[in-house]
Amino acid sequence: MDDMKPNVNNENLLRHLSNLELALTDVIPKYLELVARDKLNKQELTELGELEYFLMEIDSRIKQITQMLEQQLYGSTMERMLTMKAKARSGSMTAKLKYDEMRKNFQEMLSSGVIFEWN
Description:
Radius of gyration: 23 Å
Number of helices: 3
Mean pLDDT: 85
Structural class: mainly alpha
């Protein structure tokens, strides 16, 4: 049961993500307020430019992280499936059962739209 204990690094990562979310809830309304104004003075225009640049950078980084996670998760899942498939073909009943379950789960994810098949 020790495996079920939260990892300190995972907790730190979640805390950092929560902090990012909180920071964005402060930044986005200010950005939207400045965008909605008809006239901006020089200081407000500078602030708007900085906020816009910052938000575009954050958006880009979040997309990169999301893409990396998707690729890593998909890649490791496919690698495990191929390993199980090879073992199942060589006669392992345990591997066949695991492979069948993995294939079923993968098909469910495909049909539900959780993952996409690009080919």
